[in-house]
Amino acid sequence: MALFISSCNSFPIYNSLFSPTKKQPCNTKLKSAAAPPSLLAVLFEAADHLINTFVDPPRTPTMDPRHILAGKFAPVSEFPPTVCSVIEGALPTSLNGAYIRNGPNPQFFPRGPYHVFDGDGMLHAITISNGKAVFCSRFVKTYKYQLEKQKGHSVFHSLYCGLANLPGVAARGALFVARIISGEYNLGNGFGMANTSLALIAGKLYALCESDLPYEVKIGCDGEIHTLGRHDFAGKLSLNMTAHPKTDPETEETFCFRYGIFQPFLVFFRINWDGEKQLDIPIFSFKDLCIVHDFAITKKYAIFNENQIVVKPIRILKGGAVLSASPGKVPRIGIIPRYATDESQMQWFETPGLNFIHFTNAWDEDDGNVVVIVAPNMLSIEHFIEDINLVHTSMEMVKIDLRRGTVVRSRLSVMSMEFTVINTAFVGRKNRYVYAVAVDPMPKMSGVVKLDISLSKGGDCECVVGSRNFGPSYFAGEPVFIPRSLENHDTREDDGYLVVYVHDEITGESRFVVMDAKSPELDIIANVLLPHRVPYGFHGLFIPECDLKKL
């Protein structure tokens, strides 16, 4: 216990029940941090300490925050807009805008079991204009963030590891309900972390996580990051939505979904180009509650994967975790017309061993009678929750004939890779090039690779045609492709830049690297030394300067 408390104190940064609210602004007024805690609050904290220390402490190093958040995975503090130094090459004068990446970064040392997916959302943005770069890091000011900041310590438990056994679930559940009844929590304000990704929807920028509503954010002209508030699309969006919405580059519609613990487990919907959310389409044929993190669209369809990462509360009674892998379950691919008014046209196809956490892209062939999917398949699914270091992936192309009901799969590379991206002008359309990070091991990424998936002719094929390794001590995050010209749509699909944050584990330095996306070696065009470390994180995007000014 003394070791745990010591670790907390030495952490780098830290020397009605569901009454809804229309919008949670970033300046939500909570109780004064200077006010002494009430007797009830003291009792809650004592109970929380007993649960995390004696009832259900971290059971393995992979769930122990002292282990997970050590060294280069340790969170960082906020950092104001600061001019960066270009230490190699030069930033292209045509590259004007902001690259922003989201990721978990706990504000306070976690109590109890912790997973690498937990942590408050922090945005790391580099704003580029006329060859100059400004870097900034800020938390997304969620309700959870503000509540914990007011209290001065972490409050919410891990969604991934805090529900691992019956005593722990019972104790944490009772404490959670008590805090709601006492008024300490207001679930109408959500409890999400906004730590997964970002999306530009109908001209507004959102920080996303799949357990809550989006939080609208803005990048100022000086590079500063602002949280504007929690957004429910005029009251039409409730509870939560995916962290991976898909925007059609031609129609500018954004397609989304949400999943929950009660039937219908999956709900599909879209948001028009003007930001108006359309009707929900409940998918009752989605048999099991499982982790549906991502999906894909084509010109005609939306595509979902019912995978083997399942949520089964009944397992607690048998001493198991709520969230676990189900090796005996046969995964399925579900395909529904994207303008369907109900699920009657949903088609399901069994795909043994196919577990897509992320989709790369999909498109139609043969006048919409064949759907082609490209995505990394997670092979060692049993390690996804408890030991992500052992996870291995295989890039696959899946062709589904909707009339014949056949499924043909082919492997696109022997390398383990994740965080795949494409030129977003080809979302839902046949593309040729894919960029990804090489896993070594997850969640560390040793380099960036380029695939030419046109090399695949139906069978297994090595499609990697380019790569960039940053060195033995350097690890990268998810890359983002930026077209060289935003006006000329006749240029080659790979004519642009590939940008990524890279971290040196020996010096502790982080860099922003710009590469030539066309070149076989992904030649470095510019290397920018960042004034602040960027922890390993998740997904990001680039917003052109013209769109930044409209936020």
Report what the structure shows.
- The chain is mainly beta.
- It is built from six helices and 33 strands.
- It has helices at residues 2-9, 39-55, 65-68, 143-151, 166-182, 545-548, and strands at residues 79-83, 85-89, 97-104, 121-129, 132-139, 197-201, 204-208, 215-219, 225-230, 246-247, 254-259, 266-271, 281-283, 296-297, 301-306, 309-311, 323-325, 332-337, 347-350, 361-365, 370-378, 393-401, 406-411, 417-421, 433-439, 445-452, 464-469, 474-476, 480-483, 496-504, 510-516, 524-529, 540-544.
- Strands 2, 28, 29, 30, 31 and 32 form a six-stranded antiparallel sheet that branches. A five-stranded antiparallel sheet has the order 1-5-4-3-33. It has a four-stranded antiparallel sheet with strand order 6-7-8-9, with no helix packed on it.
- A hairpin with a 4-residue loop joins strand 22 and strand 23 (406-411).
- Helix 2 packs antiparallel against helix 5 (166-182).
- The longest helix has 17 residues, at 39-55.
- The chain starts with a helix and ends with a helix.
